[in-house]
Every structure is written in structure tokens, then in C-alpha cells.
Amino acid sequence: MLTNNKNVLNWVDEMVALTKPDKVVWIDGSKEQLDEIRKQSVESGEMIKLNEEKLPNCYLHRTLPNDVARVEHRTFICTRNKEDAGPTNNWEDPQVMYKKLGEMFDGVMKGRTMYVIPYLMGPVGSEFSKVGFEITDSNYVVLNMDIMTRMGKDAIDQLGETSNDFVRGLHSKADIDEEKRYICQFPEDNTIWSINSAYGGNVLLGKKCFALRIASFQGKNEGWMAEHMLILGIENPQGEVKYICAAFPSACGKTNLAMLIPPEVYKKAGYKVWCVGDDISWLRQGPDGRLWAINPENGFFGVAPGTNLKSNPNALHSTEEGTIFTNVALNLDTNTVWWEGLDKNPPTNAINWKGEKWDCTDGSKGAHPNSRFTAPARNCPCISKEFNNPQGVPISAIVFGGRRAKTAPLVYQSRDWNHGVFVGSIMASETTAAATGAVGVVRRDPMAMLPFCGYHMADYFQHWIDMGQKLGDKAPKIFNVNWFRTDDEGNFIWPGFGDNLRVLSWILDRCEGKVDAVETPIGFGPKVEDINIDGLSIDETTVANLLNVDKELWKEEVGGIHEFYGKFGDRLPKELIAELQTLENNLE
Ligand code: OXD
Ligand code: MN
């Protein structure tokens, strides 16, 4: 036992009585303890130790083929009133769910070791960090939580001897039965129960379950925000750094943007980009009235395929030490890892993500498309020096984005905060061939929070509006970007990747009042000449095309927004209905 806190001890006793483990181990986060767990995991085959010279302290883990991604259809928000979970979440009554899962958890750890993991979300010593405990029977969870959070004594110290303010997470692999897999959040009880999965997003309870679903609910009640946003700093040649938060649905290059490499002309001029976070921001109003952000996490749980020295060298370098790879291919000649898109030399003597002999000649994939790396943030060559700052960083701009072939322009700015909330609420992405199902279908994903908002989405929009009221003229400016416009042949027009800095520069110039804009029906757009294309092979005509707002397409879009908003009934804030009306008027 690491703590005398009765609230923690009583809860752990209850969970021991329920799950009946053979042994209980409290995780203090010490190297000796973790080394012992690594050693056991290698002996049992749960982890494979990789080449110590090429990938020091790195391991490979494979999950079952039925357990390779988050399971939204089995994820529940359990609030006493069904309406409080809203129309976009699965709901169950808490008592019903506790009973149902209670039966599944009863005795589930017989013959197993229970680990009790204290962890901190947010920098050590930050008033804004929060404590969680995860009880688990998985070594993989312990070792991943060590990378993704500040685990052990720091969390115990932050909680103190008497506080009851911690999130109670219970996880068991059980039989990894997908028919009995449940990821349940009980926001009113600060509780998470997850069973029958051993895949990251379902079992690393500090991440999506706590830092987004539970924290979004806490944020609404406590006057702050938990968002599915990266945080990046842009340093100008004078050495001043301005910070941006950005939300994108999956498959829009969020990790790449978080670790962007400036294009040559910007690099030469002295610009630098710093990563504060790649996935989650906790935002609150600081004493100076501005909005400040911390990244609650301590590592990156990134998608491996497509990550390479060109697309994201910073992410790749982050994985060179102390990393756990999940469901990638194993190169048997070198005892290193490989995934599609890493390089053009797939190994010829390898094991695929399913654990089968694989030589890449049959067209099958070596790595699962959702294979991952869990890498310490400290490894990232462009990690911000403010990463551990307890105050976080002040945010100048909030950026929303999606993948739209034609509708959304390269960038536009909202007229004001409420209009910006509207822009976030109508966020959407068109499906790509990478996902199953039809291509080009518009999926609404407000603020990229659809699977992660722990309460009624309309109340969440209201909370955004309330935050804007509180921030007043200190509020960050809100923008929308679209890197994915295509020409008539379906080719991307904008180069993307590092060149996205050209758009972020315009955004910061707008925040500082350095450039004018043109009014369009959907908001403020850049003047063509204000997007720097120095060193690019595109011309001003192309930029004009990228910025063009097609009224006919937007009229269709309005239909889709009405349909989406229809879900929320009376609970939808009147401010958003007014914004939709303004958009319709502007399109006439
Ligand atoms: C993630 C996700 O894994 O958003 O970050 O799915
Ligand atoms: Mn995410």
C-alpha cells in the first residue's frame, strides 16, 4: 500500500472483494518494479523484447485479432437520467450496468495478480492535474500507463491523505470475449469499468475514458474544458512563441500537425514549431483572463502505419527508445519492427501482427492498420519546453478541421466566439477508402468529440458558449481548416504536412491583427496574397481556388446541418440556431 487515504483503500478493498485476485501489487512507478513486470511479460510471451542496440528498452505486443480498436458500439455513458447522456452516446442505467458488469467482474482475477496503478493526468504540481487509479490484471496496461501518464508516487502525493477527488478505474482482460466487451463511464461517480478488452484505447483508462469522457463532464461542472485537441507552439524569428489548439476527426493528420516540420523558407527565416500535445487538451481560464491549456498525457499513443522519416520524423524519433509497439510486424533478421509506410523495404523474414510467418509477397499487411506505438513524450525532438509547466500555455487560436473534398476552403475564421462554436459543432469529415463502408460519406463529428463527450452534446455546445461569455475579449480566435481539397481528378491540391505552417501563420497574423480578411458567407477568408506560397509549386490562381466558397455546396451542407441539429431537439442552444439562420441568409 502506498497511501493511507481511506477513500482509496476502501475502494481497493471493495474491488479486491469483487474480483478476488491471488495477489495485489501497488504500482509505485520505480524502475525495479517495472523491470520485474517487463521480465515477467517477456517470460510469459505477452511482450517481445526488441533489439536492445537499435531500439533500447522497446517491446512488441500483439492483441487478439478481435481486439484491435476502440469499440464505440460497446462504449456506454451511464448517467441516472438517460437524457443526460444525450442522443449521441449509448446509455444504460448505472445500477443496471454495475449489476451486469459486477457479475462479470465477480472472481475474474482468480489466479491473477491485481495491479493498483495511481496516476496523474497533467504536469506534476499543477493545480489543474487530476488523479486517477486504475485497477487492472494486465501487465501491458501497467507498462503503457507508465509511458502515457505520470504514474506512482507523484499521483499519491498530489491526491493527499484525505481527498476523495480521484477517478476509480477498474479493468480486467477477463476472457477478451468481444460479445462481453464493455467500456463504461459513470460520470456522476467518477468511475470507469472496462472488461474483455486488452487494446489501448479501451484499457488505458487515463486516456479517452478519463481525460475526455469523465473530464468533459467534470469540466462542464467545474467551468473548464476537456477537448480532443493537439497543442502546438509556433516560435517566430524574434523568439516569441504563440500556441494553438486544434481538433480533427481521425485520419486527418493530427499527430503530423502536432509535430510539424517548418518548410525550408520558414526554417531559414527562423521559425520553429514545438509540440505540447498530440491528442488531448485541458483548457481553463487563467488569472490573466486568457484560456490556458495543459496536455494531461505524458506520451503518444500514435498510429504506426504511414509514420516515416518524411511524413513525421519527430514521431518516428519518439519511438526509438522506451516504446511499446502494438500489432506491428516483427523483422526476425534484425529483431526490430516494421509497418506499412515505414519504408520501401518490407522485411522478407518476418512475423505479421497476427503472429504468423509473413513475407509481404502475398499482398497481406504486416502491421494492422490501427497498429500503434506508445512512446514517451520526452523522446520527441520538438517537445515544448513548457510540456511540464504546471500553468500550461496560453492559447491564441483554436482550429477545427476535417477532410472535405470540395465544401470547406483551405482556411476561414469565425466572425466571433459563438460563430466559432457553430463552426466546431458542424465539423465533418468525408470517409476515405481506409475505413470500411462507402467512400465520400459526410460524417458529422462536432469538435472531434462525438465518441468522447461524456454528457449530452447539446449541453456541451452550451458549455462552449458559456466559456466564451466568461473569456470575453480574451477568448482565442476560432478558425476552420481543410487540407484535403481535391481537383477534378481527385488529387490533393494543397501540399499539406509542413506547408500547413503557411496557413497557421495566417491564423496567428489574424490573431495579432496583422492582416486583413475578406468576408465570405461562412466567415472571414484570407486575401489570396496573404497565404505565403514562397517556395511552393502552386500559384495564386490555385490558392484562390482553395479559398473559394461554393454557395451551392454550402446550401446542401445547410440541409445536412439541419438534419444533424434535429437530433438535439430543444436542448440545442438558441445561439447555434441563430448562427445556422445567419448562414442560410448569407447564402441567399
Ligand atoms: C485516438 C483516437 O486513438 O482518437 O487518439 O482514436
Ligand atoms: Mn484521439
Bound compounds: oxalic acid, manganese (II) ion
User: Which percent range describes the beta-strand content?
Assistant: 15-25%
What fold name stands as the CATH topology of the largest domain? Answer: Phosphoenolpyruvate Carboxykinase, domain 3
Structural class: alpha+beta
Shape: globular
The strand count comes to 31
Count, helices: 16
**Highest-level CATH class of the largest domain:** Alpha Beta
**What is the number of independent domains?**
3
CATH architecture of the largest domain: Alpha-Beta Complex
Largest sheet: 9 strands, mixed
Rg over CA atoms:
24 Å
**Taking all residues together, what is the mean pLDDT?**
96
Helix content class: 25-40%
First-last Cα distance = 67 Å
Stretches where pLDDT is under 50 for at least 5 consecutive residues are: none
3D structure, described in words:
The structure is a single chain. Helix 11 runs antiparallel to helix 12. The protein has three domains: 6-44 and 69-223, Phosphoenolpyruvate Carboxykinase, domain 1 (3-Layer(aba) Sandwich), CATH 3.40.449.10; 227-298 and 386-587, Alpha-Beta Complex (Phosphoenolpyruvate Carboxykinase, domain 3), CATH 3.90.228.20; 300-379, Phosphoenolpyruvate Carboxykinase, domain 2 (Beta Complex). The protein is globular. Strand 10 and strand 11 (191-195) form a beta hairpin. 29% of the residues lie in helices and 23% in strands. The chain has 588 residues and is α+β, with helices and mostly antiparallel strands. The protein has 16 helices and 31 strands. Bound molecules: oxalic acid and manganese (II) ion (MN). Residues 228, 279 line the site of manganese (II) ion.
